[in-house]
Specification:
The chain folds into 2 domains: 215 residues, Aspartate Aminotransferase, domain 1; 262 residues, Aspartate Aminotransferase, domain 2 (3-Layer(aba) Sandwich). By secondary structure, the protein is an alpha/beta fold. Helix 5 packs parallel to helix 15, helix 9 packs parallel to helix 10 and helix 11 packs across helix 12. The longest helix has 20 residues. The termini are close together. The chain has a 5-stranded mixed β-sheet with strand order 2-8-7-6-5. A 3-stranded antiparallel β-sheet has the order 9-14-11. 49% of the residues are buried. It is globular and about 65 Å long. The structure holds ligand F0G. The site of ligand F0G has 16 residues, from helix 6 and helix 7.
Length: 491
């Protein structure tokens, strides 16, 4: 077994595996003075990767070189308009000027009227989810969703809520289906009929990050709402990528070709009782999150003091409601971000870049989920390692992300390891339905050459997949949220 610094010969094996040339070179690393002054070698990256236990989250970003596709969250490059607005940030403790600008920007982007909604600002999306889920008291609660994101699920489960993923069958069965992120309405209907008393709300994630970043159609949002209405249950959105979802609706859903993305986004919000959002995605900001609930929502009937309790929670853990854990500067970047993100030229460039990256990967023969997601391209790990010695329990997705670190590239495993669980009593792994590695593209950050470089590196390893090592978790496989904490050895 390869044990860190002691076994130098094996290091050479790893470096040999990644010693291939690429057709494209990374370019955006020249934006970083650190990287310009000291372009790290593969051996230096290897040293850092070993120190990090091959855990991508613990790998120092300065040693990457132009393809940090770990997340699209909070990694956006601010626009000049956002930088200008940032300087106007009002750092008052109470009722800062930017807060009112933010309310206006949200009303305008989401088509909502804050006279009719309660609004809670948080420092990021998960804080909003945590606040919401902690208020949902009751026995054996279930929240159905098209899919929960990892931290959203963890927040629900931490509050003893059964987070139930009901993603559409088409994600697996129909390679070209345009709305693979949809809720499975049949499964939802059955669950609502059998367990509606245990269901405090239904939650739809747009776009569906866990399910290949795939969009959800307005028809599906509307039908989900209809089923909720039938059973008197509130319907919430996880609206992190509401604008990208709206773009796909305009591109793919019948009857929306001539509607503006802005109008479609408003229609999405018109159908929900409430939503959580992380402004680190389609807020085009580096920080920020929110929870908003209609004042007349059915949630209030079930939990009559929910607004008061949420307000107390917010003040206890985030600060005054008008800054909610954010600086005035952060707030200003969100106000402009929300204006920009629904502009069609922005979205055309954004989604077009992800698509171009995806097409390049597909043409290189890499098994990717199609159609491509809005914020990321997902590699199908099972297909990637099909025919090799690497089976699901060998966590090939972790090996792939680990070795890519040596090329200065960072992706994220969102599959057998991130969403799987290990039972120490039975000593068995349970695997999720999908096994992906995600290449999430930060907004406004990379040139296409950077993404082609990433794709060349993935291709280089794909060509060597028969020689790729297994990833053995040596620490943390039994832990919750294990992908953030675990350490691995590659053998
Ligand atoms: N919901 C979805 C669909 C998300 O993708 C995320 C974050 C959150 C909620 C939580 O928001 O990070 O502001 O607390 N997703 C990031 C990612 C981390 O990489 O996809 P947050």
């Amino acid at each position: 077994m390869w044990r860190g610094g002691a076994d130098v010969a094996k290091f050479h094996e790893m470096l040999k595996l990644t010693a291939f040339a690429t057709s494209h070179q990374p370019r955006s690393y020249v934006n970083s003075l650190v990287r310009l002054h000291h372009p790290f070698s593969e051996a230096e990256r290897l040293e850092a990767a070993l120190k990090a236990g091959w855990n991508v989250f613990q790998f120092p970003s300065e040693r990457l070189c132009g393809g940090d596709l770990l997340s699209d969250s909070g990694t956006t490059t601010l626009t000049t308009e956002q930088f200008s607005a940032l300087v106007l940030g009002d750092e008052s403790y109470g009722s800062n000027w930017g807060y009112f600008k933010l309310l206006e920007a949200m009303e305008s982007a989401f088509g909502i009227d804050f006279n009719e909604w309660e609004f809670y600002l948080f420092h990021q999306g998960r804080a909003a989810e945590h606040a919401l889920f902690t208020q949902l008291t009751g026995e054996n609660l279930i929240i159905p969703s098209n899919s929960f994101f990892d931290t959203t699920r963890a927040n629900a489960e931490a509050n003893r809520i059964d987070a139930r993923d009901l993603v559409s069958e088409e994600l697996k069965s129909d390679p070209r289906y345009p709305f693979k992120g949809n809720m499975d309405l049949k499964k939802l209907e059955r669950l609502l009929e059998e367990h509606h008393r245990q269901i405090p709300l239904v939650f739809s994630t747009i776009t569906n990050n866990t399910a290949g970043g795939q969009p959800v159609s307005l028809a599906n949002i509307r039908d989900t709402r209809r089923l909720c209405d039938k059973h008197g249950i509130p319907f919430f959105l996880d609206a992190c990528r509401f604008a990208e979802n709206a773009w796909f609706i305009r591109e793919r859903e019948e009857g929306y070709k001539n509607k503006s993305v802005a109008a479609i986004a408003k229609e999405e919000f018109s159908l929900c009782d409430g939503f959580t959002i992380s402004f680190k995605k389609d807020g085009l900001a580096n920080m920020g999150g929110a929870l908003a609930i209609r004042k007349d929502s059915r949630l209030v009937k079930r939990y009559p003091d929910i607004f008061e309790k949420l307000r107390d929670h917010q003040i206890l853990v985030e600060g005054h409601p008008t800054y909610g854990g954010l600086s005035g500067r952060d707030i200003m970047t969100i106000t402009i971000g929300l204006e920009t993100v629904i502009k069609e030229n922005y979205l055309r460039g954004r989604i077009g870049q992800v698509e171009e990256f995806g097409n390049y990967l597909r043409q290189a023969g890499i098994p990717v989920v199609e159609p491509f997601g809005g914020h990321a391209v997902y590699i199908d790990t099972d297909k990637f390692f099909d025919g090799t010695k690497i089976k699901k329990g060998d966590f090939g997705g972790i090996s792939l992300t680990a070795l890519l670190l040596l090329k200065g590239v960072r992706l994220c495993e969102l599959g057998a390891f991130a969403f799987g669980t290990y039972n120490p009593e039975t000593k068995k792994e349970t695997f999720p339905p999908h096994n992906f590695v995600r290449a999430a593209v930060p907004r406004n950050k990379y040139e296409i050459q950077d993404l082609f470089y990433v794709a060349d590196c993935i291709k280089g390893l794909y060509d060597r997949r028969d020689s790729m090592p297994k990833a053995i978790p040596v620490y943390g496989k039994e832990k919750t949220l294990r992908h953030f904490k675990a350490r691995f050895e590659l053998i």
